[in-house]
Amino acid sequence: MIDRTLQPRILEPEQLAVQMPERMVLSNGIPLNVLNAGENEVVRIDFLIKGGRWQQVQPLQALFTNRMLREGTRRFTAAEIAERLDYYGAWLELSSASEHAYLTLYSLNKYLPETLDVLESIVKEPIFPEKELGVIIDTNIQQFLVNSSKVDFLAHRGLLKAVFGERHPGGRLVQEEDYHRITPSVLRDFYNRYYHSGNCSIYLSGKVTDECIRKVEQLFGSEPFGTGFRKPEKKEYLPVVSEEKRIFIERPDALQSAVRMGMLSLDRNHPDYLKLRVLVTLFGGYFGSRLMSNIREEKGYTYGISAGVMPYPGQGVLAVNAETANEFVEPLIAEVYHEIDRLQNDLVPAEELSMVQNYMSGEMCRSYESAFSLADAWIFVQISGLRDSYFTDALDAVKNVTPEEIRELAGKHLCKEKLKEVVSGKKMS
């Protein structure tokens, strides 16, 4: 019998057994990564296109090019695409990021030929119909206007502008007039430049059979598709950080204020990055963090506060996020600096560091337990330019970081002088 009065022993993972993808190259040169790790009769196919905000020539071009792929092709209308995917129990996700666009299809194995037929048309022959584009743009404008009344949205935009500058794609804030400049020809230009077989890679995950691979190769790997076939040039932009320490964005009717504190931080390839993750988690990256324990639990200034490093090409952005009553803005900011001082001057107690290490190790194990999460993990490695040993290196960094290293990293990378303070809310007299 189990003695339930005794707490189960904590077992630390010795290593991460993250399954490697089987890598091959299709006949037309597209890299194919296969992760056969599923028990259920479901597969997922991910298209990675090297073309995002960093490559666009005007705001929203990359986003709407990706978004409009499902709104009509030479063979299918938008309604037919939606109806066919729904009929076969499939799900299509489209997204666009800094340097990549993604198309992700979830499909039952038995209907993969039918669903891949739809995906092929979406990838190879979208038509960007003007009527559907107009409807989507109108919807997005309304959502943008709604978001523009929210203090968290305004503070987030203010922080990006402060740390990157207006000419950097990370700090170039979308305005309402940018939506009106999007036309089918603008999207077609971006599609023709970046959506081709010489500029993409494919991940196939789940219960992947030889028949699945054969079907993918038949539709996407037998011959080149698209136009131009030029690889995108690597674009690098220099951030221009604002000289202002405090940026205030007024919302006179706001019941509470959004606070964003942030600064440029490390790229994911920096030697300090993996151990910095431990520091940031301890600082504000989980429910038991320093910021939560002090500012939420002890002081009651906010319902939630967090810190993390947002990844961008070339650098990250260290950000502290919170919403609080207008009268608590100043004491909340003061407590954030107080916690930075503690991390820079005092050694973290071994018990607290051990709790963070156990939390992060558990999260890492949980993140790589399914076929689809494995695909996400290896896509992250690819787009970040990381080594295949990243997962082992990350676990080693978590397990072996010392209190002395935490203090040293806080001194190097939690620079109070560089932190921008962005507040959006009601002006206090």
TrEMBL record:
Q: Name one Pfam family in it.
A: Peptidase_M16
Q: Which organism is it from?
A: Bacteroides fluxus YIT 12057
Span of domain Peptidase M16 N-terminal: 62-135
Membrane-crossing segments per the record? none
Q: Which residues form the Peptidase M16 C-terminal domain?
A: 182-358
Q: Which domain of life is it from?
A: Bacteria
Protein name (Swiss-Prot/TrEMBL): Peptidase M16 inactive domain protein
Q: Which GO terms describe its molecular function?
A: metal ion binding
